[in-house]
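I hope you will forgive my troubling you with a question about protein structure. The matter concerns a single protein, recorded as an amino acid sequence and a row of C-alpha cells. Please examine both parts with care and let me know of anything in them that strikes you as inconsistent. Thank you for your consideration; the sequence and its C-alpha cells are set out here:
***
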Amino acid sequence: MDFLFEYYGFTPGKMRRWHPGAGVLLQGCNERENWPLYQTSQEGAQLDLAAYRSKRKGALAFIGQLLANIDSRPAQFSCFGLHEWAMVYRQGEHRHPLPLRLGQAGTDAVVDAHELRCTHADAYRFFTAAAAPKNLGRPTYHDQLETEQPGCIHAGSMDLYRWAFKLSPGISSDLLVECFQHAIKARELDMASSPYDTTSLGLPNIAIETPEGKAEHVSRQRALADRARELRTKLRLEIGVLSGSGEHLSEIC
C-alpha cells in the first residue's frame, strides 16, 4: 500500500479530506469557506464549478479523452506481468529490496523465453537497456492516448486511482476510495507475478513462467479489467459533470 502513496504522491492525509463531488450542497457546512475551489453561502458549501473548470480544463480534457480511448480498445492479456521482469533483466542492482525468486540467471532466462508486450509508457521507461529492445512496441508519454489499453494492470486499473485524485476535489471521495481499493488489488497481482520473492510479505507468488501461473495471472487480470470498466464508467460520468457535458444536483442534510 505504501507504494501507491509513494508512486502516485497522494498522501493519506489528503485522502482523509472528504469531498462530495460536483453539484452537491453541504448544508450548513461553512467551515469550507477557505478550502480551494469551494464556494460558500448561507445555505452551505459546494464545489465552485466555474473556478474548477477554469483551473482544471486541460486535465479534464486529457483524462476524459484517455479514459474514452481506453474504453474503445480491446483488452490485451498476453503480457503476463513481464514488465517487472524486464526492469531487472541482466542487471545486478534492483529497484526493490526483495530477492529474486529464480535468481538473476533464472530471471533472465524467463525474459529470454518470452516476447515482451508492454503497452504502458510508465512501465516501459524502467526497462533495462538490454530489455527495452525486446519489447514489441516503444510506448511513450507522447503516444499515451493511442497506446494505453484496458487489460493493462497499470493503465487500465491502478491509474484510475491516479486520475481520480488528480481531479480532486471535483471527483467524489467515495469514487476515489473505490479506485484506491481497486489499485491495491492490481498492485497485489503486479507484485505476485513479478520476479521478486514476495512470500515474506504474505503474498504468494504466481509462477508466470509456467502454464498454470500464466492461467492464474490472466484470470485475475481479466477480473481486474472487468471491475476497472465499471470504475472507468463512473469516473467518466463524474468528469462529464465537471466539464459541463452533464449536470446533477443533490443535497446532503
